[in-house]
Amino acid sequence: MSEKKFKESDAGDGSKATDQYLTGMKLALTLGSCVASLFVAALDQTIVTTILTEVGTKFNDFEKIGWLTSAFLLPMACLVPSYGKISIAFGRKWTLIAGIIVFEIGSLISGLANSMDMLIGGRVIQGIGGGAIQSMVMIILSESVPISKRPLSMTLIGVTFSVASVLGPFIGGAFATHVSWRWCFYINLPIGGVAIVFLLFGFNPPTPVGNLRSKLAKIDYLGTFLVVAGTTLVLLAMTFGGSDFAWRSAAVICCFVLGGLLLVSFIIWNFRFSPNPIILKELVTIPQIFTVFITSSFNFAFFMALITYLAIYFQVVFNASAWQSGIDMLPMVISVTISSILNGIFMRFTRYVKITFTLSNVLGPIGCGILLLLTTSSPTRDRIGLLIPVGVSIGLQFQSAMMSAQLKAPSEVQGSLILSTIFINFGKSMGGAIGLTLAQLIFNSTGANYLEKAIESVDTTSESSPYYALGQTPAKSVISNPDIINSLPDAAKELVIDQFMKAIKNVFYFAIALSAVALISGIFSTNKKLPKSEDIAKKGDEDIEKKHEIENDNDNNPSMITSSSAPHSENTHSSTKQSSADIHS
Question: Most buried residue, 176, 193, 210, 272, by CB count within 10 Å?
Fold first, then answer.
């Protein structure tokens, strides 16, 4: 009897896991589509960070510039869990195409915006489409390539996501400096169009079974509402508490309380009552999958915090333009790219997943910790070298985390591959949104406090004093605005930068804490290796297994053979036809 082969779960839409493996030109086109669409979605997470001041000046509406980031990250994080069931009902291909189209519409609205409110609305629409893109890209890639070969193709996705996220401020600054900030959004239109064309010609999976009514019945509408509304309210409270609203204000308290109640209701509904749960109970109760969820969440939390505040560090301390700050981030970009490529090769040929996953988690706290060595006068060699360890950590993380979770997805549970991938992506999106929000809170609140205390010791009342401007502008506005800092007289600027460094080091301490949690959680991930190519179930293997089962049953029950070979010729002919039908059913 042959050894049972490794098999991933079927999608639950009538197709088999082995039906969608691609090779040759179709695989190349599908990968090209995934890379192009993910690049613009990841880019837009951070591309606005270096154009906030210019946009605020353009629309004379500085009070709302914080929404330009939140309006994108909030819907993207909140809607990720829902896309799994939607893709099972309507197909991954059309879910991704719909996501790209929605993202493109949001990009066009943002580029054409004639007011801050219109721009924020466009960013919300972008976030809705961006969530679908990030979710579907990972699922389509996972369904197109056998798990033994997946690390190499996953490398492309990991490099694309990480590099686009890090380069976002650089590209945004380049457009703002040399063309127009509107091109931060226009650039998405041709790239998204190419992604759709590639997907139409390269990825043609089986059509999900069922009519429109049965497909709509697969979606958990109540669960979707509860998780989206609850997550949105909690993130809104975290985003604007302590800045636009006091922590004890009715608005913030109501958002926390109502959001928390909705999330608790979602948990009860999803795991106890929902006929089509968004998050499978089987996934949450598998420790090796849940620990990857926790690890990915905390890793992406510190990742988003660092790439945002390192760019600000270069702009404030060294008076770098947005373009130059992007160049200063290149050591991280290069280390992310090289480590991700080497990780894909390592996993493909050794089949070990946990080694690089653990190495990534170990390098996380080390990389975040040595960033504390950055000062207001760090030489170029330090600014290059100190960014490399954290870049390597991020580069090793992407494929390892996803492969670790997919290895433990139960093959007997339909849709578990799709929903486990969605589950990990949900953790990354939520982690990134929460991590950046908390980093902003830590930086702004501690920085303002440090600056207020420092201002008390200098003369801000005399117009001839170099510190006079500090007495005319709220400390909170000064510490968070590189343009204001760089416009100050040298003495005042030096004072502010010293307080700025204290605040940004608090962000680094926060990143250390996040990465430490990821390190501890990652210890409990699976030790399972990737299966060999010859050990993976292929198309037609199920028919062979059924034939072997029938033969074994006949060997164990000879009476069945005797009865089936009766002396009546018509029965013999009928029996032969029926056996053949059974084998191929």
Answer: 176
